[in-house]
Amino acid sequence: MHTKDQLIKEKLPKHIAIIMDGNGRWANRRSLARIMGHTRGMESVKQVVKACRELGIQVLTLYAFSLENWQRPKTEIKGLFKLLKQYLRSEIKALDKNNIQIKSIGHLESLPEDVQNVVREAIEKTRANSGMILNVALSYGSRDEILRAVARIVSKAAANNFSLAALNEETFSQELYTAGLPDPDLLIRTSGEMRISNFLLWQLAYTEIYVTDVLWPDFGRQELYKALIDYQKRQRRFGLTGEQVKGQ
Ligand code: FPP
After folding, report:
1. pLDDT tens digits, one per residue of 105-132
2. Pair type for strands 15-19 and 186-189
3. Rounded distance, CA 143 to CA 106, Å?
4. Could you read off the pLDDT of 152-204 as tens digits, one per residue?
5. Where are the beta strands (DSSP E) in the chain?
6. DSSP state string for 205-226
7. What gap in Å lies between CA 153 and CA 175, rounded to an integer?
8. Sign of the dihedral through C-alpha 133, 134, 140, 143
9. What 3-state class would DSSP assign to 102?
10. 208: number of CA atoms within 13 Å, CB side?
11. Close Cβ partners of 111 (under 8 Å, ≥ 6 residues apart)
12. 22 lines ligand 1 (CB under 6 A)
């Protein structure tokens, strides 16, 4: 049994990023349609968002739909967008009441218009909220994001709005979708795969990675606490020696 009381408040991550994997396998094991796995996965989203808000996590980034996911069967894509719309429609009041700000990263403009509208409305409605940022990756790919940042910098430089002498990690980060957000401290991936899957490649440079065999629809509050307890046992060295870190 993992509880909130086992956590050290001062050592909680500011930013948690999650690759929510295993919805399909969860459904397959029960001989259900894949979309049923996503539907249950949505319940996990609700639980984890709630638990993170209660813990005072500043940013929660969820990998909801990757650029590669466009290659899935049309019916599954439709079903996923339907779920996203349902989630935002039914939860927006509660999210807003809990002072949660919705953001998205990725090609929002490539989503069906009705989905875009619901996401944009949620972003607009919660713009001034300061309790937690719920950042949803939609039509997102990290290499694409990096190339986009390079293109933005090149075009600013060509227009004399940016001097290449000012190019450094900070100024580059400002051109990513995640501009202004701290890098993730913890990446959680469910369902056992040891991969990053084109997610936040730049931002994950020093992130602690936690992989669990638990499938996303089975990941709830308990599993989140377990991941956080594991995270808190680690020593983050950022390239220093263990002794140097202890002396800080
Ligand atoms: C991975 O499982 C999951 C996805 C591609 C989609 C995740 C989306 C949701 C949980 C719902 C929408 C989210 C939000 C934030 C409102 P998989 O299908 O790759 O599983 P498999 O690897 O077992 O097939």
Report:
1. 999 999 999 999 999 999 999 999 999 9
2. parallel
3. 11
4. 999 999 999 999 999 999 999 999 999 999 999 999 999 999 999 999 999 99
5. 15-19, 59-66, 100-105, 132-140, 186-189, 208-211
6. TT-EEEE-SS-GGG--HHHHHH
7. 7
8. positive
9. strand
10. 19
11. 81, 119, 138, 139
12. yes
C-alpha to C-alpha distance for 132 and 126, rounded to whole angstroms: 10
CA of 23 to the centre of ligand 1 (A): 5
Q: Cβ(178)–Cβ(198) under 8 Å?
A: no
Here the tokens at position 56 are 């005072």
Q: pLDDT-derived band of residue 244, with 50, 70 and 90 as boundaries?
A: confident
Q: Which residue has the tokens 């606490």?
A: 225
Whole-number Å distance between alpha carbons of 4 and 189: 20
Q: How far is the CA of 191 from the centre of ligand 1 (A)?
A: 11
What's the predicted TM-score (pTM) here?
Answer: 0.96
Q: Which atom of ligand 1 is nearest to the CA of 215?
A: 23
Q: How far is the CA of 21 from the centre of ligand 1 (A)?
A: 6
Exposure of 235 in the CB half-sphere (CA atoms within 13 A): 11
DSSP string, 125-140: HTTT--SEEEEEEEEE
Burial 200-238 (b: 16+ CB within 10 A, else e): bebbbeebbebbbebbbbbbbbebbbbbbeebbeeeeee
Question: How many angstroms separate the most distant Cα atoms in the chain?
Answer: 59
